[in-house]
């Protein structure tokens, strides 16, 4: 079994890290540069930075802030939010990111994934999927875009399969139903996607306890777990998370 990655997520709005419940009721969680540096020092395997209002405000990702965070972290760094072209991806990568995450733009222009993979390599291209359980089909999930504000008729599992074929090297899968609830990941969703693709899948949305992280990997089939609330607000450190997962037999990178 490959080493499982622990990845804190910085959802950024107006230059501050925020965290909400099901993408709503956002509250302040700190300075992104300070938080990023802390996670890097604590031994996080990677860091994700999502400019959550860039798309709905029709603007580019905040490059200056990305540069500041990149200067203070020494782990792989993924950046997403408002990225619509390979030129913007190039700018993000030149600003210090190791990977770029695309969601809305990939849905509206799927060939963007292929263009990016051909130019930068699939390892740099992360397909972010915001998934919501379909009301009329409880065993299906629909893709949502524009920071979760706009549902589509696209099936999540089918989109994940297509995204891999188009060139994505990784999938960042967020359950909108579980996000911020601290009640656990949607492992039926995670398992459906992880079984359908051969590329790594990062599970996101719902972490509240240490066993939730274990279940996302052992039950949901995730290759990595993304978290925010449980680390931003001091519930657990990265070391505590890794020690717990290791104690339960999962391979993690302990410093």
Describe the structure.
- With 255 residues, this protein is α/β, with parallel strands linked by helices.
- The chain is built from ten helices and twelve strands.
- The protein has helices at residues 32-42, 63-72, 86-94, 104-108, 111-120, 156-166, 187-196, 210-218, 229-232, 238-247, and strands at 5-13, 16-21, 24-30, 47-51, 77-80, 99-102, 125-133, 141-145, 150-155, 170-175, 201-204, 224-227.
- The two termini are 19 Å apart.
How would you summarize the topology of this molecule?
Elements lengths: L4 E9 L2 E6 L2 E7 L1 H11 L4 E5 L11 H10 L4 E4 L5 H9 L4 E4 L1 H5 L2 H10 L4 E9 L7 E5 L4 E6 H11 L3 E6 L11 H10 L4 E4 L5 H9 L5 E4 L1 H4 L5 H10 L8
Could you provide a short overview of the structure?
This protein is of the alpha/beta class and 255 residues long. 35% of the residues lie in helices and 27% in strands.
Structural class: alpha/beta
Cross-sheet strand order for the largest sheet = 1-4-5-6-7-10-11-12
* Number of separate structural domains: 1
Compute the number of helices. Answer: 10
Q: What CATH architecture would you give?
A: Alpha-Beta Barrel
Radius of gyration: 16 Å
List low-pLDDT spans: none
Instruction: Calculate the mean pLDDT score and round it.
Output: 90
Order of helices and strands: EEEHEHEHEHHEEEHEHEHEHH
- Largest beta-sheet characterization: 8 strands, parallel, barrel
Distance between the termini: 19 Å
- What is the CATH fold-level name? TIM Barrel
Note the main attributes of this structure.
single chain; alpha/beta; eight-stranded parallel β-barrel; 10 helices; 12 strands
